[in-house]
Design a protein that fits this description.
Strand order of the largest sheet: 3-2-4-1-5-6
CATH topology of the largest domain: Rossmann fold
Structural class: alpha/beta
Shape: globular
Largest sheet: 6 strands, parallel
Helix content: 25-40%
CATH class of the largest domain: Alpha Beta
Number of domains: 2
Length: 359
């Protein structure tokens, strides 16, 4: 009826006298071996909360590791090499194929990774391989090759029908072919079970160890994703923490809700170009509105050779080379321009980066 509230919009009352600050909460969790902090991947405030929880847990002596969804398990060696200072940050981002596989602005995660590096805290790559989940999405678990079946988690639990119903609602918002739901469910559970298996392995291998798990709210909030599957393997329940969302009752289903102000990353400096990575390099395929690169004379089809003298061979190289740039910063872009009849010509252009266009 008109005027009625939806469940998601129902007001929640907080009684300040009975509420805790984050330091007070972390003091009560000092003996917890397992803590989860859920995230909306693009929400900077969620990652700041994760960093605050990490700092609090790191202040207590004892073995501590971080388990993260952001990297796939196959890239653990590259993660270890970066934390041990054997490779640079740029090499680490290339070697983990971060920009191809996770894609979110690395500045959201950088403070957490750097804190771990500076304090000798291991990071465990929890996620299942993209190749595995993509093939499950295409043919289902039963259709996998023998080689890919070896990459599956050790076991699955399909018995949580409340979780399945929740996933069905999400599926129905985006899909129309009902026959595809089973594959959608299998992919979700492959993520959940794979991450849970690796968390459980750490807890079992380190009887005195503690682990902070950082993953999407959908994998954490209702306990049906990763937490219940870790408990099934280890008997350890752990505690879940998420920021309060006024628009989602599901993401608020955690042990502790944190009320926090919205935070935004500093604006990034932008060239205003759309890029196309090919076998022979990174090409300009189009421009945004008021593109400073286009105004500097760069054309569609140009091959980017270098930025500020650093060679560009892959899309990730562009992201790495511009990660610390802000609007108004100047860069020098060297590029190869294909001339009619005369062949390619190497050119350079200096221009100031733009900010994000208003929506």
């Amino acid at each position: 009826m008109a005027g009625e509230r939806t469940a998601a919009a129902t007001p929640i009352v907080v009684e300040p006298a009975k509420s805790a600050t984050l330091p007070e909460l972390m003091a009560t969790l000092r003996d917890e071996r397992l803590v989860y902090v859920g995230e909306t991947h693009t929400a900077y405030g969620d990652h700041l909360l994760q960093l605050d929880v990490l700092r609090a847990m790191a202040a207590d002596a004892g073995n501590l590791a971080i388990g993260v969804e952001w990297f796939q398990a196959r890239f653990q060696p590259a993660l270890d090499d970066y934390l041990a200072d054997r490779i640079s940050e740029a090499e680490f981002l290339r070697d983990t194929e971060y920009y191809e596989r996770w894609r979110f602005d690395y500045r959201l995660y950088r403070p957490i990774v750097r804190f771990a590096k500076e304090n000798g805290i291991p990071i465990i790559a929890l996620n299942a391989d993209q190749e595995l989940t993509s093939e499950i999405r295409r043919v289902g678990i039963n259709g996998l090759s023998d080689e890919l079946r070896e990459a599956l988690p050790d076991e699955y639990d399909f018995s949580d029908k409340v979780y399945e119903a929740m996933l069905r609602e999400i599926f129905d918002l985006h899909q129309s072919e009902d026959a595809q739901f089973q594959r959608f469910l299998e992919v979700q559970l492959t993520w959940d079970e794979s991450m849970a298996q690796r968390v459980a392995a750490y807890l079992q291998q380190k009887p005195a160890g503690r682990i902070l798990v950082l993953a999407g709210k959908g994998h954490v909030s209702t306990r049906s994703g990763i937490p219940a599957r870790v408990t099934r393997r280890t008997g350890i329940r752990g505690k879940t923490i998420v920021t309060f969302s006024p628009s989602s009752t599901l993401s608020n289903a955690a042990d502790y809700l944190v009320l926090a102000n919205d935070e935004n990353l500093p604006p990034a400096g932008l060239m205003g170009v759309f890029l196309d990575e090919r076998e022979d390099g990174v090409f300009v395929k189009g421009f945004g509105h008021d593109s400073p690169a286009q105004q500097a004379g760069i054309s569609e089809g140009d091959l980017i050779v270098s930025i500020d003298g650093q060679p560009i061979r892959h899309f990730a190289d562009v992201k790495i080379q511009t990660i610390d740039k802000r609007p108004g910063d100047e860069i020098e872009l060297t590029y190869s321009h294909q001339r009619v009849l005369l062949g390619p010509e190497t050119r350079s252009a200096r221009f100031k980066l733009a900010g994000e266009s208003p929506h």
